[in-house]
Amino acid sequence: MAQVKLIVSNWKMNLNFVQAKVLVEKLKKIKSKDSSIINIICPQFLLLPLVSNLIKESKLILGAQDCHYYTHGAFTGDTSIELIKKIGCKYIIAGHSERRQYHFETDKIIRQKVDMILFERLKPIICVGESANDRKNKNYLNILKQQLKQCVPSDLDEIIIAYEPVWSIGSGLIPKVEEIKEVKDFINKFIKNSKNIEKVTFLYGGSVSSQNLGEIFKYSQVDGALIGGSSLKIEEMNKILTLG
Known about the structure:
Layout: E1 5-10, H1 17-28, E2 37-42, H2 48-54, E3 61-64, H3 81-86, E4 91-94, H4 97-102, H5 107-119, E5 123-128, H6 132-136, H7 140-151, E6 158-163, H8 177-194, E7 199-205, H9 210-220, E8 224-227, H10 234-241
Parallel strand pairs: 1-2, 1-8, 2-3, 3-4, 4-5, 5-6, 6-7, 7-8
Helix pairs in contact: 7-8, 8-9
């Protein structure tokens, strides 16, 4: 793994304060074989202050799972990007399929969030992905194109895209490596040609584990991974962070 790789741990709505502390302390002790790996942790909001304090003077980087597209206002239950930034987050996930499904977030809403993240000089991790039916009907590239068209701004220096096929998340099923590479090449080409963005960091997400990530890195040539369930297991993270 010669080039820089982003390993993004999406803890989702998991871990209590004690569990989070134990996991972070163990993560801090892992010595990666590849110094170019950027290790990002995205806990649920109430864990952010704890994790922020725990990772000081370490190489771990703090991220958030979401934000609102306004800095303040009458939005009960939402979290302001100003507070997220203040607590030390450098990255924010935008448009995760679970936000699309359970919170009914549209491409328009996701784009507003991405614009706010960029305005605050943080880095969005923009999620895109197709359903099982889209894949079965061979309509997946059109779905991805539409999501990219609506969610990704133009004329940026760089952007991070996380490809997470909805049918793969938590299912244990993953696309073939050639299918991941096909999507990677398609997204890179579309963003460069249609959005005038030269640098695209492409992450794969969806049932990522230490058993499949090495092959994905080797044959799909992705730039990193968005990891869900495996990110909660220190044995898995130790194997993933020491691949090479």
